[in-house]
Amino acid sequence: xxxxxKYWAIFQITLINSLAYPGELIGRSLMIIPFMWxxxxxxxxxxxxxxxEVINGLSLSNVMWYLMLAETIExxxxxxxxxxxxxxxxxxxxxLLNKPYDFLLYQLSTTMGETIFRAIMNALFGGAVxxxxxxxxxxxEGFLIxxxxxxxxxxxxxxxxxxxxxxxxxxxxxxxxxxxxxKLAFLFGGLLVxxxxxxxxxxxxxxxxxxxxxxxxxxxxxxxxxKELFISVMSLQVIWIVILALLLTFAYxxxxxxxxxxxx
Amino acid sequence: MKELKFLLAVWKANMLSAIEYRASFLxxxxxxxxxxxxxxxxxxxxxxxxxxxxxxxxxxxxxxxGVLASSFGLVSMLFGNAFNLSDIISxxxxxxxxxxxxxxxxxxxxxxxxxxxxxxFTYGFISYALSGYFTWDGLLRFVLATLxxxxxxxxxxxxIQSLAFWLGIMSNFSALALNAMLTFGIYPITxxxxxxxxxxxxxxxxxxxxxxxxxxxxGFKWQALTELLVGxxxxxxxxxxxxxxxxxxxxxGSAIQVEV
Lengths: 264, 260
Known about the structure:
A: 2 strands, globular
């Protein structure tokens, strides 16, 4: 319990800190506006050309609210892999490792603290634009139902990005890994095109991978909040969180064994 | 001529510096090509399902993405500091460049090479080769269109980032403008109505980096070439003018810094 309080305090400090520069917070969140507008243009034309109001179980409104939540999850995340790799490269990680806390839990607490308001701002701007373009979501309660999946998505993403950041123990530059992970998340997570529009075989592959639990699962749950989907999304997320958390712990222990810090 | 020699010397030094760490250089070049390919797979899936967007097909996407990637890569390789010019201005790092008897803007933007740009530049040619529009004279048009689109893109970056002379720190706004330029450049121009198209030729000249060069590559058209030439020259002129105007307001931070 005492240990939990420590990480809760770290989370709270980072959360408050993220509000210190409201201009920056708002400025960064404006990015979602042109994205939503251009998505609307693309899907409006696509739906009009298809001559159907519903494609693969999704209406235009569903697609737009799906994309809004998917982008909120994506844009709300801080660039953790880059931060950790820089910490490793410049040796400042030594200052984090010798403190009386677990490095991974410390990173998780600060990342979640940084993410919350970024995501809220993105959801506000993105939601306002989508509401104006296609009207209110069909299932507003879907947001509350998808909330645990959104948090699970951030935890999953955390596990992957910390592993990428820690790979700086072995390689000089992790940016290539970051780009490829981001594009894997775009492709298999259904960030730009919902997985429902993929060919059947690719849907099966994509839905089994962790990327779909990071983006597609929570966003689809938001637009079609059924009990079956909730159980399916949450169980897959839990399985992937356990697997990736174990891998991360192993990678971290091996990484620290490699670490050499020069000077002081 | 003197300035060209200077530029070639700066680019050579940048290149030697980048390939000094070969593993890192190669991982960035190859990583960026894989990154571009994976992004493009999403468009392949989209067009496999929906066939076309108001007449715009997958082959058009290959072409547009190709010219956009190559021009983006060219600017990243040759004028890498154009991406963080606002940072250089707001942190007083122009002092270093002002102390040299060389054009300040040219020296500043050319002093950094982004290695991954080589991956973008190369990938653009591959994308063009796969587009189904490949011909040998088309390749010459692709090269010319890439050069002109790169001028538009570099000028747009300089113009936006020079606003830091008036606005100070503006990294979020720069990132927003860059993302808007790339996103609107990639998406099919047939999506937009006439009002949006006016914006895409002026405020965010994404059409001059994607759709117009692609139209010129498909087949020689005087109108497309004129639009590209006039757009490139006009944006370059405005960018240099705004930078020079802003430079008059520049105040040194007197910070001691090392430029590497």
